[in-house]
Amino acid sequence: MNWRLVDSDLSEPAYTVAADEAMALARSRDEVPNTLHFYRRSCPTVSLGYFQKVSDAVDMDFCRKNGIRIVRRVTGGSTIYTDEHHLIYGLALNVASIPSKRDDAFRTVCSAIVHALDELGIQSVFKPVNDILVNGRKISGSAQMRRWGIVLQHGTLILRNRPGMMLGALKMDVDKIHSRGREPADYVTSLEEVLGKEPDVQKVKDALVRGFESVFDIRFNKDAFSESENRDIQNLIETRYGLENWTMRRP
User: Fold this and answer.
1) Three state DSSP letters for the chain
2) Residue numbers of the domain that contains 60
3) Residue 251 — pLDDT band, cuts 50, 70, 90?
4) What's the confidence (pLDDT) of residue 228?
5) What is the structure's pLDDT at 227?
6) What are the two backbone dihedrals, phi and then psi, of residue 206, each rounded to the nearest 5 degrees?
7) Which contacts of 176-181 are long-range, i.e. CB under 8 A and separated by 24 or more positions?
């Protein structure tokens, strides 16, 4: 079975969240096959879970002073900090391609990430519900949505960690992190830290492709978004994801 691979690489923040939704909509209409989408955000960005309140999760003053954009994604979950050093994947599947239970679906998709990290020489473990840890520290997290007869999951793989930006931009539950025996700055790790060198982004993508191919027993065809998807992306940017008042409100 063949799935589609789309690689947008460095992209504007509003484009990335619009593309995830447009891809999911196209899959729900059977216009495109199951699709894996890679991207990195071209500037520092806070990504809000769909239902999160900005004032509860984000330090707006810090973000303004440091040029950090804010987007609200279509999936739920917690707020995260991303930039060009975070490789993000979006995966749009029909429901028949993935376990029906949420936790099992997370485990299946995350096992592809674990497989890729192993190929890169990094021993990692899946921590339910949706995290991947290296030496007890988070290197990848994910979020999921089930709607329109499809599953959309996306997540990050941290290439290089910038704890100062993350800690400044996000209102983190410091007590919760301390209860796990960690300092906030040590809560996450990165490929660069674990490998001791800057990772080759293309090699990381290639390893992820092989991880997904192995876990799902499929092969990818590299392609681009369709004309219909591109129209949806532009419309979603103009009516939702590119509008500050939509991003700042709580749905």
Assistant:
1) CEEEEEEEEEECHHHHHHHHHHHHHHHHCCCCCCEEEEEEECCCEEEECCCCCHHHHECHHHHHHCCCEEEECCCCCCCEEECCCEEEEEEEEEHHHCCCCHHHHHHHHHHHHHHHHHHCCCCCEEECCCEEEECCEEEEEEEEEEECCEEEEEEEEECCCCHHHHHHHECCCHHHHHHCCCCHHHCECCHHHHHCCCCCHHHHHHHHHHHHHHHHCCEEEECCCCHHHHHHHHHHHHHHHCCHHHHHCCC
2) 2-248
3) low
4) 98
5) 98
6) -60, -40
7) none
Stretch among 32-46, 59-73, 176-190 having the lowest mean pLDDT: 176-190
Task: Work out how many domains the chain is built from and give that number.
Answer: 1
- Strands 2-11, 219-222: pairing is parallel
Token pair belonging to 26: 């196209």
* Centroid of chain to Cα 54: 19
Report the CATH number that the domain containing residue 79 is assigned in CATH.
Answer: 3.30.930.10
How many Å apart are CA 4 and CA 2, to the nearest integer?
A: 7
How many Cβ atoms are within 10 Å of 151's Cβ, its own excluded?
25
**What type of residue is 206?**
D
What is the pLDDT confidence band of residue 187, given thresholds at 50, 70 and 90? Answer: confident
CB 129 within 8 A of CB 114: no
Point out which residues pair with 6 in neighbouring strands.
37
Burial class of residue 184, CB neighbours in 10 A (0-12, 13-18, 19+):
middle
pLDDT digits (tens, 9 = 90+) for 150-171: 999 999 999 999 999 999 999 9
